# Entry
Amino acid sequence: EAQVTQNPRYLITVTGKKLTVTCSQNMNHEYMSWYRQDPGLGLRQIYYSMNVEVTDKGDVPEGYKVSRKEKRNFPLILESPSPNQTSLYFCASKYTDTQYFGPGTRLTVL
Amino acid sequence: EDKVVQSPLSLVVHEGDTVTLNCSYEVTNFRSLLWYKQEKKAPTFLFMLTSSGIEKKSGRLSSILDKKELFSILNITATQTGDSAVYLCAVEASFNNAGNNRKLIWGLGTSLAVNP
# Structure
């Protein structure tokens, strides 16, 4: 089944403790991206990647890192999470103009 | 600044009603407009529109784009409780002359509640 998977689905952590949210797609898509979704602010792009080893900042990249060492995986790294990074995170991959979203990761930073 | 504005923000209807959701945009280097449905999970793709005046249809849902007036509408006829969701509109635009660097600009969504 074609899909985008994310792990974990829910995460509660404390300020400053590094974490990684994994994202994997099995559709051989070149384009992948990370979004955060917050009430009243909608979906905002954090980072995107056009292909392996090609990443670029989206609209809200501060406090996040990404890597794209292989086509299927695009992990999101929070080196020192802060409470303002509490949000719902979506990974997505894209073929032509259609994005496929992962199930979401609800992150709470205390 | 590129922006996508959806209206209304929220509406409540009864089963069987027809609803029209609006999405207007101001975007440089427009490529396409997309509609998504988001229930209590990830957005799922509904339609992609690139040409004016050509209706896309899927069951009770249909959508059309007007590139002159810069808007799109999403129609849902004979609504059902399962249509309750947030409907998101996004516009894809190029941000370089080559057209190979693209971004999606998202609206805030319309929250639709269909009551039995």
Summary: The CA atoms of residues 21 and 74 of chain B lie 5 Å apart.
